Amino acid sequence: MVEVLPFQALTYNLGIVPDISSVISPPYDVISDEMREDLYARNSFNVVRLEYSRETNIGGDKYEEAARDLQSWIAEGILESASDASFFLLTQSYVDAYGARRRRKVLIARVRLAEFSDGSVLPHEHTIPKAKKDRLDLLTQCETNFSPIMAVYRDSDRAISSILESQRVSGSVFASGTIPNEGEFTLAKIGDPEDLVGITTAFRGISVLIADGHHRYETALEYSQISRSPGAQYVMMGLISIDDPGLDIYGYHRVIKGIDESSKGRLIARLHEEFEEYKNVRLSQDAKLCSQEMEALLAAADSTKWDVALLQESGDTLLLSVRGMTETHGEGARLPIRLVEGCLADVLDDNHQTLAKAVDYDHDVVSTVTRVTSGDCAIGLIMGSLGVDVFEKVVTSEGRLPRKSTYFYPKLPAGVVMYPLWND
Question: Which domains does the chain have, with CATH numbers?
Answer without folding.
Answer: 4-247+409-420 (3.90.1530.10), 253-404 (3.30.1760)
